[in-house]
Design brief:
Length: about 325
């Protein structure tokens, strides 16, 4: 008789992991999206376990101008090895489910998480090499500029916005990691917890992942440029910022510039995650416009002629009114 066999729930979850890992062999694992004015529909680079997909030829053409190496699947040893690794993990998950031995489960979990970590480090190394090892005779050379895409999230590269995120296969890997972690915890506690606990773990983990980098990105005064007027952001009392759902950051030196840009409708409201404005008082930190109290006065002169400032407390607004007679407003009243 087997000693401390895996629960039926854990075995079913491992069978599910085996099946979904097999799917990874046929779907993209990662995607890098590039947005620029000359490509309004955007460009996409898809990374599968054994090949590259998407707009590879166009991306290679653009890379040639800035001195980056062209991308070819044959140049990457990873594309030869990845299918075998993924297939092996699918087979191992199946073996663990059939044999129902806790030690095999722990072995699967340790190897799987180690592989995931090593893969991310290797991906970062690949991006670093391609972004920094540039041809010195390239047609376009910007001194001190490198073109390393973000490992995950958004990064501005010249006039291109690069957005890097897992695709279907990558999210499957995340899911298998969470499920296998749950299986290990349940087995170590030697309890058969209800399936609802798994749902809660996935919900909590997803919430934690989605909350990463959810706040404003600090403005670098004297360095950052306003997205609208291109002037250097220099007055820390008037700065503003828009963050899209993809993580792209638009910085402005004045709420006047930000409102002007919003009215162009270049960004659809559905694309916007958060809008921030600088607190005129205190440490001049960025705060969400939905939580800010605004003062509009003809006596206010922002860097680009804006007449709006913000504060967090009504007492602060009342004090500012003594210096700048005007109207106390909410963001919804200004931007409709």
């Amino acid at each position: 008789m087997k000693k401390d066999p895996l629960s039926t729930l854990v075995r079913l979850l491992l069978l599910f992991c085996a099946a979904t890992l097999a799917v990874v062999l046929f779907v993209p694992m990662w995607r890098i999206e590039l947005d620029a004015p000359q490509y309004p529909e955007g460009l996409t680079l898809l990374i599968f376990t054994n090949k590259l997909g998407g707009n590879v030829d166009i991306v290679n053409g653009l890379n040639h101008y800035i001195g980056m190496k062209t991308l070819h699947a044959a140049d990457f040893m990873e594309f030869t090895l990845l299918p075998y690794f993924v297939g092996s993990f699918a087979a191992l998950a199946l073996v663990v489910a059939i044999m129902a031995r806790p030690k095999l489960l722990y072995t699967f979990f340790i190897f799987f998480m180690s592989f995931a970590l090593i893969s991310m480090v290797d991906f970062w190394r690949w991006e670093y090499n391609y972004g920094h090892d540039l041809n010195p005779d390239a047609a376009i050379i910007v001194p001190g500029m490198s073109y390393q895409p973000p490992l995950i999230g958004f990064k501005q590269l010249l006039n291109f916005g690069a957005y890097s995120i897992p695709d279907i296969g990558g999210w499957i890997f995340v899911g298998v990691g969470l499920i296998s972690l749950y299986a290990v915890v349940v087995t170590l506690k030697k309890k058969r917890l209800p399936a609802a606990n798994l749902i809660w773990i996935i919900i909590i983990s997803s919430t934690l992942l989605s909350s990463c980098n959810s706040g404003p990105v600090a403005l670098k005064y004297g360095t950052d440029n306003c997205y609208s007027c291109k002037m250097t952001i220099s007055d820390l009392r008037f700065g503003a910022e828009i963050i899209t759902k993809k993580g792209r950051v638009y910085r402005f030196d004045d709420s006047y510039c930000m409102l002007g840009y919003l009215k162009t409708k270049e960004l659809e409201p559905a694309q916007i995650k958060s809008i921030y404005i600088t607190n005129y008082t205190g440490n001049h930190q960025l705060m969400n416009v939905d939580e800010a109290l605004l003062l509009q006065s003809e006596s206010i002169r922002g860097p680009m002629g804006g007449n709006i400032i913000a504060a967090e407390q009504i007492d602060s607004i009342n004090k500012l009114k003594e210096q700048f007679p005007g109207n106390h407003l909410l963001w919804s009243e200004i931007y409709k």
